[in-house]
Amino acid sequence: MRIFGWAADDAGPGFYRLRVPFGELQQHGYDTAVSTVMPDWVLEEADTIVGQRVCQPGATERWRRLAAGHYGRRPQLVFELDDDLWHIDPSNTPAWAFYHSNSELLDNLTECARLADMCTVTTEPLAEVVRKINPNVVILPNQLPASAYGTVRGPVGPNLTVGWAGGASHALDVAEVTPALRQHFRRYPDDTFMNMGTLFGKVATAVPGSSRVDLPWTLDMNEHYARLDDLDVGLAPLRASVFNQSKSELKFLEYAARGAVTIASDSGPYARTILDGETGVLVRQPHEWTRSLRWMREPEERTYIASVATAYAHTRSIENHWQGWEAVYTT
Predict the structure, then answer these.
(1) Alpha-carbon torsion 131, 14, 109, 93, what sign?
(2) DSSP code of 317?
(3) Helices (H), 116-200
(4) Does the predicted model carry a pTM greater than 0.90?
(5) Domains in the chain: how many in total?
(6) Which of 141, 148, 184, 330 has the fewest Cβ atoms surrounding its Cβ within 10 A?
(7) What is the pLDDT of residue 154?
């Protein structure tokens, strides 16, 4: 059986939603391929085509033709989506401009989801959105590849390395934690903050350069995972919004897989996944960010939560869950 993944890009979503499960399916005898460009053989030989966020005019026209059997055959079409693109917050300037400045893209997105035999998504809230377009929706939660897991850490000291990893879409999310960062690093200047990705002005102001390590965003996932090895605490602020409600807990899984404690907003995917005080720390009020950071300076408390979180992350490996993708793609 030949399965082709039509990736929207080479960034994280294409990695987790296509390359990770497709790589595991190959280990179990399936003929899989992933590319941002659809080669000619796909039209003649693919049994299943998984289209990620198909909405560009040329791609949409090809999706229409595939659905109509225009190429002399009708492969199974699976529409893949990991974000609620219909409810992007305007503060996410690049994505808002891309999808909402031209209604054609959102119309195409809706049409391609409707034409698919089924849709796959990451979370139940996102499934609720997509079911209004296509009732045949399957939830395939994000899972981690073997390369995501780090080695067991040794004893830890009192000083913290705190970090955040993310892009420009998280301006309002990060704003929720910057007052706490300012307070924390005034009190504990020997702690370190790792900013991996977009450096927002508020963060640069809150954390002095002497306490901050700035690393640009990377598309190399092995490099991304290796960076997380330096963290004691990973931050996951997430403002309550319609768009964020549909997001997944992937950031928590990545932190946990590398032995870091996650301090996260008690909203969206983190409220659904993290056990407060056991697999991570949930923040409900603004002042709790400061208190939680101070709490994690206790080595024994930090080590306990990190160990429980890492054990949970190991239950979320693609090796343990690849059958979910198999069941969808071979239906």
Answers:
(1) positive
(2) B
(3) 124-131, 171-175, 178-187
(4) yes
(5) 2
(6) 330
(7) 60
